[in-house]
Amino acid sequence: MSPVTSALRALPSSPPDRIAAAFARCRAEKRAALITYVMAHDPDFEGSLAIARACLEGGADLLELGSPFSDPVADGPVIQRAGERALASGGTLAATLKLASLLRADWQTPIAVMTYANPVYSLGERKFAQACRQAGVDAALIPDLPPEESVGLREACAAEGISVPSFLSPVSTPERRIAACAAGTGFLYFVTVTGVTGARRGLPSDLGPRIALARAQSPVPVVIGFGVSEPAQARKLGKIAEGVVVGSAIVARGAEGGAIRTRARRVREFVRSLREALDP
Q1: Of 17, 44, 61, 64, which one is the catalytic site residue?
Q2: Per the omega criterion (within 30 degrees of 0), is the bond before 280 cis?
Q3: Residue 64 among the catalytic residues
Q4: Residue 119 scores a pLDDT above 70
Q5: Which one, of 155, 159, 169, 165, lies nearest residue 8 by Cα?
Q6: pLDDT in tens, 172-187
Q7: Distance between CA atoms of 161 and 130, rounded to whole angstroms?
Q8: Cα–chain center distance at 77
Q9: How far apart (Å, rounded) are the C-alpha atoms in residues 193 and 41?
Q10: Tell me, what DSSP letter sits at residue 199?
Q11: Which residue, among 105, 108, 126, has the nearest Cα to 21 in the 3D structure?
């Protein structure tokens, strides 16, 4: 076992939380969990709050709030444009956490914040973890933070009961897969394609065996993201993983125009169709 893997295994585990409860409920219902992504502060704070609530009303099992950042290396064109709109309207990590706290006041659905390493380390690992706990956030997704660099943040988050899921991709090496499975808490995020986020008509044909291998090694549920754009895809992928993440397709519907009420209704109906597709 490598020193990095040993150090990661030595980290304290998070206590039982809303994420574990959500996946347990989905297992009892014999279906995969639906994870929906919303860019905080797009088109503005109140607008993103309405769209996030629409996702929860539509049946999302876990809500992922994207925090806008100027160099979003994992985001495709749709979410990049959403991030630009969010930054222009005053979006920040602090505003994203405020949005989470307002949602937490009304909902017990797990909430994950998706951000990048730069804002986290600018704030400080401990302060970031404490701010997440105070806002009612359950997990922090940081796609540009490799396991080898994450020990300090994971320690800080574990102390506050915040999960830090790891990422895997179709090109992850066996060593990387082992490190990611050892490090991750909450759930393991399997990226379906090489590249950035974005809705796609087709997904790799060899996903099944790769997901099966990840599930065999991961102590936490495995969810699939990047590229899921329609209910039929969600239903298919929900048969091989414990959760399905839909992001760009939701963001695009929220950006199509109209009053916020109209946008929220459009998102709610789409999320409901995704949720129904996952039913056994």
Answers
A1: 64
A2: no
A3: yes
A4: yes
A5: 155
A6: 888 988 888 888 899 9
A7: 9
A8: 18
A9: 27
A10: -
A11: 108
Q: How far is residue 26's CA from residue 243's CA, in Å, rounded to a whole number?
A: 9
Summarised one tens digit per residue, pLDDT across range 28-42 is 999 999 999 999 999
Residue type for position 26 = C
Length of the chain: 280
Angle between helices 93-104 and 125-135 (to 10 degrees): 30
Instruction: Name, in order, each residue with C-beta under 8 angstroms of 34's C-beta and a sequence gap of 6 or more.
Output: 59, 60, 61, 62, 234, 243, 244, 246, 271, 274, 275, 278
Buried b / exposed e along 119-151 (16+ C-beta atoms within 10 A): bbeebebeebbbbbeebbbbbbbbbebbbeebb
How far, in Å, CA of 132 to CA of 111, rounded? 10
Euclidean distance between CA atoms 236 and 219, whole angstroms: 23
Residue pair 204/190 in contact by the 8 Å Cβ criterion: no
Q: Is the pLDDT of residue 146 over 50?
A: yes
Choosing from 42, 75, 138, 242, which is the catalytic residue?
Answer: 75
- Classify residue 156 by burial, with Cβ atoms within 10 Å: 0-12, 13-18, 19+: buried
Question: Is 75 considered catalytic here?
Answer: yes
Q: What would the two tokens of residue 133 be?
A: 């706990």
